[in-house]
Amino acid sequence: MQSNENSLDYDFDLTPIFRPKSTVIIGLSSRNPDHPGNAMFSKNLIEMKTKTYGITPRANEIDGHKVYQSLDKLPEVPDLAVVAVSARHTLQVIKEIAEFGVKGAVIIGGGFAEIGKEGKKKQDELVKFCIDKGMPFIGPNCIGVYSPPIVDTFFLPSERLVKPKQGNVAVISQSGGVLIDQFFINCKERDIGISTAVSIGNKAMVNEAMLLKYFEKDPNTDVIAFYLEGFHPGDGRKFCETARLSRKDVVVYSGGISSAGKIAAGSHTGSLAADGSIMKGAYKQFSVINPTTEQYLTNTLKTYSMLANPFRKYSTMSIHRDKIAVLSVSGGHGVICADIMDKYGLKLTKFTDKQKEDISFLLNPVASRIAGLNNPIDITGSGTDDDIVNILEYLLNAPNVEMIFTLLVPQVPQLSMRLGRSIMQIGNKYRKPIIAYVPWTPKYDLIRDALEMHYIPCGHTIEETVEMGTALILKGEGGIRKKMSTL
Amino acid sequence: MQSNENSLDYDFDLTPIFRPKSTVIIGLSSRNPDHPGNAMFSKNLIEMKTKTYGITPRANEIDGHKVYQSLDKLPEVPDLAVVAVSARHTLQVIKEIAEFGVKGAVIIGGGFAEIGKEGKKKQDELVKFCIDKGMPFIGPNCIGVYSPPIVDTFFLPSERLVKPKQGNVAVISQSGGVLIDQFFINCKERDIGISTAVSIGNKAMVNEAMLLKYFEKDPNTDVIAFYLEGFHPGDGRKFCETARLSRKDVVVYSGGISSAGKIAAGSHTGSLAADGSIMKGAYKQFSVINPTTEQYLTNTLKTYSMLANPFRKYSTMSIHRDKIAVLSVSGGHGVICADIMDKYGLKLTKFTDKQKEDISFLLNPVASRIAGLNNPIDITGSGTDDDIVNILEYLLNAPNVEMIFTLLVPQVPQLSMRLGRSIMQIGNKYRKPIIAYVPWTPKYDLIRDALEMHYIPCGHTIEETVEMGTALILKGEGGIRKKMSTL
């Protein structure tokens, strides 16, 4: 698509789309209260802060609220128009709003490139017109933007959604379903905050690189996360080049990486899925983090989101993959951690005999007799809070340790509920990351919360803990690449 | 170790250990209320149903309950003795209880083979004596047995634990920590019931194969799950041969599969970890299911536990890996599912043009216009309960479909909270498995519960759903191998 190959040269202002002072919803139904247009109208009117108008030729009011029959009846020119009419009427509506002076649009409806040649032609006409007019649009075939507390074009009733808190992660997805489900639910469940969420659908005009540029400048965003099934020709390279220059964390979860997935992606958004292994290599080269599972994605976002706090200076440190210590109160946990670290390409640092002796002296007499002093250190179920804190401080000072995984099993009798606070207090004294494992039961939230409120990430499983540590290492490695590439 | 290599030839009755009429705890402290012996004494006395005696030379009562100074003062001979004294006193205590007529023991303490030569010698003496006397023991270096509602030797205070419901999965672990943490918490969280849990520690006498034989006969157990870091010489083969003959599902989660993990396992339980790839091959050959992650383990146990219900006759069916249909209301979910299926070696069945046309006719008019009719089927956010149920019934009758993954995203406006019940009602009419994905928020428990209460497993993520399906396929394939091996 010609227009897309050049779209990056246009520098459209997306602010009217994400922070509109006023919004008009075009396409409401006087009969179907669940029509997407109606859902968006009442949602923005009542739940969000954008001034909201509705347009339908067939009614004066919807749900008791005044609506207008046509654009020219509106008391002002809205910044944003959300177009919820069928594909065959869309171009006409787009022409009218551009004429009226609207600054940006979200096109919800399907029936464009994703259904074949005929739809592709309609889509190309839209793009050509909007580039000429300088009016950017998101979509078509999407659910649009969620930009709290301003605007929300997700036409799904709010009570059906699980909404994460406001925070510092921008989420951009080629699938509206994945956005409201995997991203929203995992972020809510793991307490990751979202700055803005964008469903880009066919991304006919506003593409990945344009959004990357926008969120690069957004002061509320530290991490920019994508779900992508492929790129339009030329867009992959532009995306990677833009990502390389970004000072923020850029994370992509890829769909359509298998041949079966690629076929499915083709019929989903009409986009040609890029070859999985080529994009994987490109992401690595251009410092785009590319977690391979939904779980790994969530843990990566959580780690980057937390470590964006300026207190955690080590978030830009380079951590060597073979300088990791593991401290556990259960031998089995240490064994499993060592296996998982191997899978993620991390290595246990080797303690010297002197270090093992030192660690032994730090332990209570019972634990000292039965503890395993190799790495992973297994202080056994006889371990105490003091044992853990003292060994942690020792490791935080050890020159051959650059990151510590501490596997807490508070089930053992002598650990107290102050353990999280004690670890946090010692951790705060040093510029070296600790990542914790705390069993995922509310029973141990007192420990987990003390750690996480001070930006020490906690995995729900040992694998999650290792994923968090790996994400931190990748960030450091990427940072070095970024620095090198700008020399 | 000579004794271990022959241990399988002895056919000890383990019933006194798992279903003791009465139990004696040996080794209580008059000073430390958190001593393991004291914890076990009060736990069994108050929380469990075994009649419980405590022995300590230094007190007449502990926590207000009568205790005895020596064995000969007891009013009866207990079935089970739990030995919580130090390594150097253990053999003497074992001799006394054997003499007194106790039928089985659990040896809690460490300081045996796991600490080296000296400890290994002590352990060998114990084994030799107990084989001669015909008195089996679990351990040493373990937390013993949890056999609700009878007996619980896990010396950790109950309030620190998360206890799963009673059910049909027996859990045997070489790590007490992994048992009470990963197994207990995941089973509780995913509503998997446990029949018995055993921490085998150094498994000096009672080994994996003996436990397999015991649980094979246990009417409360349908699934037998292990966490293992390695085998004593000769025991791996015996275990596999016993598993091959088992009519129950045998699942092993392996620790110490990497070289770093193997070293850690060596210092943890003093057992030589078997070569990871050799055991992996052996497990496959002998129909032992060997999930590679904690998450996959949990989903495997959940699937087998649910499908042990006689209503779900397809649990022994052979399902072809390339005869799977995916039905989704979100295109992105279908793409991700296709990718994950590829990773697990599953393939999407190909629909004929006739089938696609049939499916299209089953859809409501709006969905019919925009739906993706390849496999995965994407009925889009315009889909309804009827669409899903009608297509499911069509697929349940399709000869080229042997299993269906249905990816439910109840966030979309037209799906109702009756959806789970509707799917379950149609699913119950056919002998073909449906595995569902339902987002992991309590908001959608009404849907999830309708499915799971009728033994249709639901994953919390798409990957979990695929893992459940893969586990079901592996079970069928294993069943065929088992049948073949007995011909």
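qc> Chain A has two domains: 2-304, 312-485.
qc> done
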